Amino acid sequence: MQLDNTVEVETPEHVRFRFHAAGPTRRAWAYLIDLLVRVGILLIVEIVLVLATGQHLTSGKAIMNSGTLLSLFLIEWGYFVAFEAGWNGTTPGKRALRLRVVKAGGYPLSFMDAVLRNLLRTADFLPVGYLLGLVAMTWDGRFARLGDRAAGTMVVIEDPVRVAPSITLDPPPTAAEIVSFPHRVALPLPEREAIELLLRRRDLSPARRLELAEILAPIVERRLGVKSGDPVRFLALVYYLTVGGAAAAGKPNLPSGAKS
Questions:
Q1: Hey, which bits of 82-186 come out as E strands?
Q2: What is the pLDDT of residues 209-220, one digit of tens each?
Q3: In terms of domains, do 32 and 126 share one?
């Protein structure tokens, strides 16, 4: 059960990792930065070409020159391959936006993976402005464009490692609220994590938090055989009793929704 763009992968050793797949907007900003870097490289090539031959890149003779064509190809296509293969799945733009290309299983991509995903960049660009790639991304849970699908890769957001604050309940649960629940409250891990994700989302407005809680609460109600009143308070109580009850007993300070 997902409330965001979290992607879970499992290794052959049955170790599970979670990644946040990068959406089109963030990747577009990274591409814009890389475009500016490539334009800067082209300007350097232009200056060198003018000083060495007196010709511009756009002149007819320069365009027909095999060395010029090779330089343009390397800047346009080799740029991404070189950086992603040699810089552990990042480019200057991706690194600035904290993005990284990895294999769909969470492993680092190889040189051939970088080559394959970027060879299909032309197809993603069609008919103009990466329109086909954008359509492909919207139909994929990992926001994979055609090149990513062919190479078996995905672009993920590198979240800074931090210890999440504990979630507590405010006002504290009353005896009447606790009595309304089964003696032992147990939920599958995906549902517990979905509740925790909702409670930790500081960026949600009260209306949006209630909307998401109204989607999740009926599922939990059926699981526990309990009827809820306020769905946000209900989910906070469920989390308190399944995960945080013992730990939070000494510091019950979480609002009738939840806060961390």
A1: 99-103, 153-157
A2: 888 889 888 888
A3: yes
